[in-house]
Design a protein that fits this description.
By secondary structure, the protein is of the alpha/beta class. The protein is 37% helix and 16% strand. The strands form four sheets. Strands 1-9-8-5-4-2-3 form a seven-stranded mixed beta sheet, sandwiched between helices. The longest helix is centred in the C-terminal third of the chain and has 19 residues. The chain is globular, with a radius of gyration of 20 Å.
C-alpha cells in the first residue's frame, strides 16, 4: 500500500522547463525572473510592494526591522506557531509578549491582546496559522486605538481571505513563505509585503547588503536575495495557486464529512467570513490519545505531524493555557493537492478505526 505523506510539492513540467531556461540563460541571481515573480504576487494580492527574499524568516526579519523595532521594545504575538515568528522579534532586540490562542481557530485571541499592552509595546504580530485568517477587524481596532504597528505572518496563508480581502494586505508589513511544504513553493524563499514606499525602499536595499548601486552602501544590510531559479518556479506556481488552494479546500471538506460525528476528536473550524486555505488540516485529539493515534497512522502508512509540540515561551513568561492544551492535542493530517479521494477515505477510515476500537 502506498505511503501517504503529510506534504508533497506540486511540481509539473512547467516548473522544470522554467528552471532549465534560467540555467541556460546564465542569469541566476535576483534578475528579471525575481521582478516578474514579485509582480505576480503583488498583482494577485492587490498590494503595492512585494519584495522577494531568501526565506519566509528573512522576509519577516526585514518586515519587523523596517518598522524600526529596536532593543527594549515589546511585540505582542502568539506562543503557538513556528519559532521564526518570535525569533524575528528577538533578532531586532525586542521582546515577544505572548497572548493565548482561540482554541477554535488556533490563532491569537483578539479579546486578550489589550491586557498585554504596555508603554513598551510597539507592534502586534499575528500569525494566520494553518491557513486560517485571524480576526482582523478586532485586531486592527486594538492597533488603531493604541497606535501600534500591525505585522502579519502570512507564511501559511497565501490566498486566504478575511471578508473578501486577501491575507497579507491588512498589516503595515507582512511576510510570506515559499518553503517546500507551503501551498505554493520555490523550495526556499519568502516575500515582504507593504503599501509603504519608504519601508519598501529600505527593504530592497537591506536584502542586498545595504547597497542601492553596486558597491555603494547606504545602510547595514544582509544577503537575503532570492535567486532567479527560485523565482522561475514561483512564477509557474502562481499560475496554479487558485487551483491548488481550491483542491486543499475540497480535500478538507471531504475529510470533514468522513470524520464528522466521531467521538474523541474535534475537527478544524472555519471562522465566519473567511477563506481558509488549509495549509494544514489540524484536529484536536482528546483524552490523551494523540500520540498513540499518530503512531497507529504511521504503522498504516499515513504520515501525520504535530504542529506544534510546544509553545515558544521565554523564561518567566506567563502561561497560555489554551496554547499549552493545543500542544498536547493537535495532530495534522495530510491535506495536500496530490491526494485522491481514496487516499482521504483511507485516512478517515484509519482515524475512525483507532478511535472506535
Amino acid at each position: 500500500m502506498n505511503r501517504i505523506n503529510i506534504s508533497k510539492p506540486f511540481m509539473g513540467e512547467e516548473e522544470i522547463e522554467a528552471v532549465r531556461n534560467v540555467l541556460l540563460s546564465g542569469n541566476l541571481v535576483q534578475g528579471v525572473k525575481v521582478k516578474e515573480f514579485e509582480e505576480a504576487v503583488s498583482g494577485f494580492l492587490g498590494i503595492k510592494h512585494a519584495i522577494a527574499t531568501s526565506s519566509g524568516t528573512t522576509a519577516l526579519h526585514l518586515a519587523i526591522e523596517s518598522l524600526g523595532i529596536k532593543p527594549g521594545d515589546e511585540v505582542i504575538t502568539t506562543p503557538f506557531t513556528f519559532i521564526a515568528s518570535s525569533n524575528c522579534i528577538l533578532y531586532n532586540g525586542a521582546k515577544p509578549v505572548f497572548v493565548d490562542i482561540d482554541p477554535k481557530t488556533f490563532n491569537i485571541d483578539p479579546e486578550k491582546i489589550e491586557e498585554k499592552i504596555t508603554d513598551k509595546t510597539k507592534a502586534v504580530l499575528v500569525v494566520h496559522l494553518y491557513g486560517q485568517p485571524c480576526e482582523m477587524d478586532k485586531i486592527m481596532g486594538v492597533c488603531k486605538k493604541h497606535n501600534l504597528k500591525l505585522i502579519e505572518d502570512s507564511a501559511q496563508a497565501i490566498g486566504a481571505e478575511y471578508k473578501g480581502q486577501k491575507i497579507g494586505t491588512f498589516g503595515d508589513v507582512s511576510a510570506l513563505s515559499f518553503y517546500a511544504t507551503k501551498n505554493i513553493t520555490t523550495g526556499e524563499g519568502g516575500m515582504l509585503l507593504t503599501n509603504n514606499d519608504v519601508w519598501a525602499d529600505k527593504t530592497r536595499i537591506r536584502r542586498q547588503h545595504g547597497q542601492r548601486m553596486i558597491y555603494e552602501y547606504e545602510i547595514l544590510g544582509y544577503n537575503y536575495r532570492m535567486t532567479d531559479i527560485q523565482a522561475a518556479i514561483g512564477i509557474e506556481q502562481m499560475k496554479k495557486i487558485e487551483d491548488l488552494n481550491n483542491k486543499r479546500i475540497e480535500n478538507a471538506k471531504t475529510l470533514a464529512e468522513l470524520l464528522s460525528g466521531i467521538d474523541g476528536i474535534v475537527l478544524p473550524s472555519v471562522a465566519p467570513e473567511t477563506k481558509h486555505v488549509f495549509h494544514q488540516y489540524t484536529i484536536h485529539v482528546l483524552d490523551g490519545k494523540r500520540d498513540a493515534l499518530k503512531e497507529q497512522l504511521n504503522e498504516k502508512g499515513i504520515q501525520s505531524m504535530i504542529y506544534y509540540p510546544q509553545t515558544i515561551y521565554q523564561p518567566g513568561s506567563e502561561s497560555c493555557p489554551e496554547a499549552e492544551r493545543a500542544c498536547k492535542e493537535v495532530l495534522s493530517l495530510p491535506i495536500h493537492p496530490h491526494l485522491k479521494k481514496e487516499d482521504i477515505e483511507r485516512i478517515a477510515e484509519e482515524v475512525k478505526n483507532y478511535l472506535e476500537n
